[in-house]
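stuck on this:

***
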Amino acid sequence: MAKTPPKTQIKGKPGPAKGPVPKIELSVPSDFIQVLIDKAHEFQAKVEVVEQDPGSNPSDEDMREVLEDFPDDPVHEEMHEMLADLNQDQQADLVTLMWLGRGDFTPADWHVKRREAMALDPRRTPDYLIETPLLADYLEEGLSQLVGG
């Protein structure tokens, strides 16, 4: 049985004309979120493949293949595995955090939007998150809004 990671607690800041935001407790550890942000930055830096089968030594090509978006991209696979290993509550927190960072709502509406995220199919959530352009930026912005940064 998997060990339950410690929860990330974020004290809500006052929302616009709605009073204080209830304390939001993420079920995803902050260090996991940071690793996911780093991986998303790495994944989203990928560019179109120039040559499908270069057949040369990567060091001869200045390691350009590392930045090319091949179908069997190990960063994609690692991100998918990380997200698929989360439970539905943790996935919903990440989706809600991404929506918050994207500007879909304010922290005052967190609990309503989280219920919407819980309704998503957890089997599709990893792909939904990975395929979101600017995922890393949205997660960073969402965290920033929650901590009042």
Q: What stands out?
A: Residues 8-48+65-147 form one domain. The CA atoms of residues 60 and 113 lie 49 Å apart. The chain has a mean pLDDT of 79.
